[in-house]
Write a structure and sequence with these properties.
There is one protein chain. The protein has a single domain, classed as GI Alpha 1, domain 2-like, CATH 1.10.400. By secondary structure, it is mainly alpha-helical. The chain contains 7 helices and no strands.
Length: 142
């Protein structure tokens, strides 16, 4: 009896495994492998747990801050112009990359800096340094 039950359990597990589609995702660093996986999970899997969502929020904020700091910090290195809103530039450059964007109007200053003509010109020169291209869409959506 136990042998039949074990055999049935193994057959059920094999049938279940046979229905699974496995995919090997290869690519260089920062090419979007993890993003692809997260999109698949969002679209077809279980929703993110609150811990996963909070973690991703931190990652997104850090990427936004790193990118804006990179853009604003390199304007004078690559272009003959500077950011018009020097207060926003100073606040963003002094902020830690893991600072909360909602705190003390930091998000508003990031947005002002993104809209600055010098930062936009720097964005057009982004090939000169590393930038996460997906952040363009994040900035444009705000």
């Amino acid at each position: 009896m136990a042998e039949k039950q074990l055999k049935r359990t193994l057959e059920d597990q094999q049938a279940s495994e046979a229905k699974k589609v496995k995919l090997l995702i290869l690519g260089a660093g920062e090419s979007g492998k993890s993003t692809f996986f997260k999109q698949m999970k969002l679209l077809y899997g279980a929703p993110f747990t609150s811990e996963e969502a909070e973690y991703m929020r931190g990652v997104i904020h850090e990427n936004v801050m790193d990118t804006v700091q990179e853009l604003a910090g390199n304007v004078t290195n690559f272009l003959d112009i500077d950011v018009q809103n020097l207060d926003a530039k100073a606040a963003v450059l002094e902020a830690a990359s893991d600072d909360d964007l909602a705190a003390d109007g930091l998000g508003d200053m990031v947005k002002e800096l993104w809209e600055d003509p010098a930062v936009q010109a720097m964005w057009q020169q982004r090939y000169a340094f590393t930038i996460f291209l997906i952040l363009r869409d994040l900035f444009s959506a705000s």
